[in-house]
Amino acid sequence: MPVQLGLFCPPVNKRTPSYVVLEGKCAGPLVCPLSRVQAGVVVCIKELAASPEIRERLREMGFCEKQRIKLLSRHSNLICQVCNARLGISKRLADSILVEPLPVQHQAA
After folding, report:
1. Is the CA virtual torsion 23, 108, 28, 34 positive or negative?
2. 18-31 core/surface letters (b: 16 or more CB in 10 A; e: else)
3. CATH class given for the domain over 35-106
4. Contact predicate 15/31, CB 8 Å
5. Average pLDDT value over all residues in the chain
6. What's the rounded mean pLDDT across residues 17-44?
7. Which are the contacts of 36, defined by CB distance < 8 A and separation ≥ 6?
8. Cross-strand pairs, 26
9. Which of 66-71's residues contact partners 24+ apart within 8 Å by CB, and which partners?
10. How many Å apart are CA 27 and CA 29, to the nearest integer?
11. Taking 60 as the threshold, does the pLDDT of residue 60 lie above it?
12. pTM for the full model?
């Protein structure tokens, strides 16, 4: 005797979540652009939201998913400590690097 199963799949929202920035701080629940992080904070890269060519170049420079980085300066360009090297990137490029703040005990990197 054949058995029929009814499957329910909830609809998927394919829109990219919008992040609200309050006083230069991340207001999203988990991630925000690197350009919105305060200097001195250690973060973990969650996603590279750029073209495939830019993503590949960022990975070559050390900006990989799950990589811990520290934002050192936020002047005309952002200076980051990545793999014991200091790298400068534009604020526009930093907008495409989505990061998650690390708990306080991981900040001493």
Report:
1. positive
2. eeeeeeeebeeeeb
3. mainly beta
4. no
5. 78
6. 71
7. 19, 21, 24, 25, 26
8. 21
9. 68/42, 68/43, 68/44, 68/102, 68/106, 68/109, 69/34, 69/42, 69/43, 69/44, 69/45, 69/99, 70/40, 70/41, 70/42, 70/43, 70/109, 71/34, 71/37, 71/38, 71/39, 71/40, 71/41, 71/43
10. 7
11. yes
12. 0.69
Beta strand 25-26 with 85-89 is unpaired
The residue ranges of every structural domain in the chain are 35-106
Percent helix / strand / coil, the chain, rounded to 5: 20, 30, 50
Of 62, 70, 81, the closest CA to residue 39 belongs to 70
Tokens coding 62: 């050390």
Polymer length of the chain? 109
Q: Which amino acid is at 9?
A: C
For residue 45, the one-letter residue type is I
Strands 68-74, 78-82: pairing is: antiparallel
Say which DSSP state 15 is in: S
